[in-house]
Amino acid sequence: MQNDVGSSALKQASRKRPGRNIAFKLSFELMDATKGNGNAIRKKEETHRMAEANRTFAYFH
């Protein structure tokens, strides 16, 4: 399940990059991901923050 989410985030972030060739967009997104930045990494961190907030909220109710 986590791999599906990760690859989906990479594909979506690649499509949003400027340029025409998806291979170049994907390669640049992968390079950014290995450096720890890029839209896919931002999406992953946002998802983890939301999961943590939901876990905390569920704990108190």
TrEMBL record:
UniProt keyword Ribonucleoprotein, yes or no: yes
Domain Small ribosomal subunit protein uS7: 5-55
Entry superkingdom: Eukaryota
Keyword Membrane recorded: no
Gene Ontology cellular-component annotations: ribonucleoprotein complex; ribosome
UniProtKB keywords: Ribonucleoprotein, Ribosomal protein
Stored InterPro entries: Ribosomal_uS7_dom (IPR023798), Ribosomal_uS7_dom_sf (IPR036823)
SUPFAM superfamilies in alphabetical order: Ribosomal protein S7
Family: Belongs to the universal ribosomal protein uS7 family.
Name listed for the protein in its UniProt record: Small ribosomal subunit protein uS7 domain-containing protein
Organism expressing this protein natively: Gossypium stocksii
